[in-house]
Specification:
Order of helices and strands: EHHHHEHHHEEEHHHH
Strand order of the largest sheet: 1-5-4
Helix content: 40-55%
Distance between the termini: 52 Å
Radius of gyration: 20 Å
Largest sheet: 3 strands, antiparallel
Number of helices: 11
Strand content: 5-15%
Shape: globular
């Protein structure tokens, strides 16, 4: 962790009006993560010279991958062992969507801590959110400050944040901190930092506008999580933005999209057809 988890990263956090909107943004921005990473690829020195990649993602993922050989699947899990197969580094793409409308696209195994999952279910937390939190807790703490060891978990969330903040995924779902006016937030994490303030501002504004369009037009970018994972691999290849092919949804309109959304997409499609001609 010495070089920092923010190495060459441009990360953006958005506050939603409620937990439902935060879940919607978390899910709908997820398929865009590999696309934006390829668009923003700018990690210095790799670029095909040091390694045949353009992005920092797999480098940092490997550097903080603390899974055992059993968890990686390199060694058979012995009988009676509490070890379990964990398919990704703690720095990787997300494993599941959070909205009920999105759960049909959750097509990969999500490893969870069964005790945490049971505790959340008994407390009345829905299945998808219980699964998400229980998945975070399959990881061990890797950093701890002495003054943060003894905490009142009824009033403080530092123990939770210790695990949450060391699960470095493409998206992060952020509950409100206690005794604060801060609400439900989502963090968009795949973008690479650019060389100039103008370029960084441009990517930031673009993602901000994407959140507004998604919510205003109620668009649907969802694809299966397994396809998002494949896109993440493609996005890191050298010159992926021009040479790579990505899975992407064709019909972005949902059942509740306003008519103006359909009209806008039709106009854009007509312009693209005219350019092709």
């Amino acid at each position: 962790m010495g070089f920092g988890m923010g190495c060459s990263c441009l990360q953006m956090t958005f506050q939603a009006c409620c937990i439902t909107e935060a879940r919607q943004l978390y899910d709908q921005l997820t398929p865009l993560c590999p696309i934006v990473m390829a668009l923003s690829a700018a990690s210095p020195i790799y670029r095909g010279y040091l390694a045949d990649i353009d992005c920092r993602w797999s480098v940092i993922a490997g550097s903080v991958d603390d899974r055992t050989k059993e968890e990686r699947g390199e060694k058979e899990i012995s009988e009676g062992s509490k070890a379990r197969r964990i398919y990704k580094s703690r720095y990787d793409s997300i494993d599941s969507y959070l909205s009920q409308e999105s759960c049909r696209y959750n097509d990969i195994d999500v490893v969870i801590d069964p005790e945490i999952y049971k505790q959340l279910q008994e407390a009345g937390i829905d299945k998808l959110m219980s699964q998400h939190i229980a998945h975070l807790f399959i990881r061990d703490p890797i950093s701890l400050f002495s003054e943060k060891i003894n905490q009142n978990d009824e009033e403080d969330t530092d123990h939770f944040e210790n695990i949450q903040s060391t699960n470095w995924q493409t998206m992060r779902f952020k509950p409100p901190p206690p005794n604060s006016k801060i609400g439900w937030r989502v963090e968009f994490r795949p973008t690479e930092v650019q060389l100039t303030d103008f370029e960084n501002a441009a990517f930031t504004v673009f993602i901000v506008l994407m959140t507004r369009v998604i919510l205003s037009f109620n668009l649907n970018f969802l694809i299966h999580i397994s396809k998002v994972d494949e896109n993440m691999k493609t996005a890191q290849v050298r010159d992926a933005v021009r040479q790579g092919k990505f899975y992407f949804r064709k019909d972005l309109l949902s059942g509740t999209s306003p008519q103006m959304a359909a009209d806008c997409i039709k106009r854009c499609g007509a312009k693209c057809d005219a350019k092709k001609m």
